[in-house]
Specification:
The protein has 217 residues and is of the alpha+beta class. The chain has a single domain, classed as Alpha-D-Glucose-1,6-Bisphosphate, Chain A, domain 4. The protein contains 4 helices and 9 strands; from the N terminus they run αββββαβββββαα. The strands form 2 sheets. A 7-stranded antiparallel sheet has the order 1-5-6-7-8-9-4. A two-stranded antiparallel sheet has the order 2-3. The longest helix is centred in the last third of the chain and has 20 residues. It starts with a helix and ends in a 17-residue tail after the last helix. The relative contact order is 0.24.
Length: 217
């Protein structure tokens, strides 16, 4: 079944430096923990003010030809309340955030600033760690939904620990992007994050961490 890797991609994280350009882009200031540092990705990550300008980078995903004329803006924000800060301390959740930055990510393989992760079927994203603790996934040209970004951050709201996921961009399938944001990030990804914190706090028994990518080998 090795042909699946060529079509859908194999989820793997590599430690690499993000491409450098002369244009610096500020990440969304969505966290109250501090100031973000600038990004220097090859394609400008959309900010909270989503622009309708198409990406200047040619998309190279296997199925990009199906959506060559479809590049529309999308923008969503998903808030997931984990529980009281006493049960879900901000520093603990923040420490676990890099373990839960992409769908189907093995929680034993955290991502770091400058890493790249290839997500099955979708393609590759660059990771950027900001000074405020938030992290951004920026699509590369071989990502099906390029050009887009997802920023994830941890906050306290009314005594509750909340994970905020903000996504925006100009690319294919904007309606589906917005529609599946909550079940994907608020459901699958943040459920894994909450379970991971529960395990680290001794509230539940650790479960075997099976890398879902092994199923594609």
């Amino acid at each position: 079944m090795s042909w699946l890797s060529g079509v859908f991609g194999k989820s793997q994280t590599t430690q690499t430096q993000a491409p450098q350009t002369n244009t610096k882009v500020e990440s969304p200031e969505s966290s109250s923990l501090g100031q973000s540092k600038p990004s220097t990705f090859e394609s400008q990550p959309p900010t909270n003010q989503t622009t309708t300008q198409p990406s200047q980078t040619q998309r190279t995903h296997f199925f990009s030809f199906l959506f060559k004329d479809e590049q529309q803006p999308h923008d969503y924000t998903v808030k997931t309340t984990l529980g009281p800060v006493e049960d879900y301390p901000l520093d603990v959740v923040q420490e676990k955030l890099p373990h839960h930055m992409t769908p189907l990510q093995s929680q034993s393989k955290p991502v770091h600033d400058g890493d790249q992760t290839t997500i099955p079927f979708l393609g590759t994203v660059d990771h950027l760690q900001h000074d405020d603790g938030s992290m951004t996934n920026q699509t590369t040209s071989n990502h099906l939904l390029h050009n887009g970004m997802v920023n994830r951050s941890v906050h306290e709201e009314d005594g509750q620990t909340v994970v905020v996921t903000h996504g925006s961009g100009n690319g294919p399938l904007p309606t589906l992007n917005n529609l599946f944001a909550k079940p994907l990030w608020g459901g699958m990804v943040d459920s894994g994050l909450k379970q991971d914190v529960d395990q680290s706090m001794g509230r539940s028994k650790p479960k075997p961490d099976i890398d879902p990518m092994l199923l594609l080998d």
